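In full, the data.
>
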Amino acid sequence: MRVFFKFFMIVFLLAQSNFYAQSIELKIDNLIETKFEADNPGAVFLVAKEGKPIYRKAFGKANLEMNIAMQPEFVFEIGSMTKQFTAVAIALLEEQGKLNFQDEIIKFIPDYPTQGNKITIHHLLTHTSGIKDFTKMKELRKISKNNLSPKELVDFFKNEPMDFNSGEQFKYNNSGYIILGYIIEIVSGQSYEDFIQKNIFDKLVMIATYYASHEKVIKNRVSGYHNREGYVNNDYISFTLPYASGSIMSTVDDMLKWQNAMDTNKLVNSKTKQKIFTNYKLNNGEEINYGYGWHIKEISKSISLEHGGSIFGFKSMGVYLPKEKIYVIGFSNCDCNSPTQLTKDIATLFVDE
């Protein structure tokens, strides 16, 4: 009788688990299918629990002209999710003793006009430097197709008036991460591309993650689109402009490797990780809901570590719930159709359960 009861309980629990998995899958499908239609630019979504995928699907088209259906392993431009990699690259150099988060940027770029401010690496990482965001400058269109060196790009915006004194406000700022990329090159003696390839992509076996290139043949590269009274191919921009603030391409599978590495301290130690995921404050003590390369927010009162990305033709969003150990990542190949809210809605399913 006891053996039968144990057998019954095992069968019952397996059935319950299978029913739950099917129920969650159906709920996620229903959320995504309302936004991404079969014949339009599409998306890929992955959900992982405790580091293992439990949902991984593609929707819509990867290329409209060739009528190619989207596949889960396809490569997308991830835009500002690049900032996570730049922040960790800085953290690696900090662990090696080659810089400190509190170092002033003039230690590395002596001629940078700080306009009376003490601007630190910490300020750049947390978007509290006050430096003008170069993507908001009208002159950007004139150089958008030019291949610039990091120094030339920094020179493009460095003499602009400050938006505010360092540490007084939080204002999302791509210029800060351009300077961080330049500092990585100065300190390491390598290009930004080579540094992240050797110290992050190769180490984590992220075989489908790249510093973006228009010239390089990249297997499974997805085409990007705008919707301007109908779908059109995405505008050209030199990847030397988004640079360390937005020039990485990846897959949802490689991004799970990345998330798992952060979760298990594979790249940086626990002390450094704590600094990365601290909710920092302004000079007046107000929290900014941002650490180093990640927003620190809440979903249904559960802590959420997240970041999105937007670059011509592409949108991306990743959400990690540390308590539930749930990671949701979504990529879209039309900047008209963001996966941001969907990833949060999917994550909410696991908080509410």
Summary: Residues 8-15 have pLDDT under 50 and may be disordered. The longest strand covers residues 302-311. The first helix runs from residue 2 to 33.
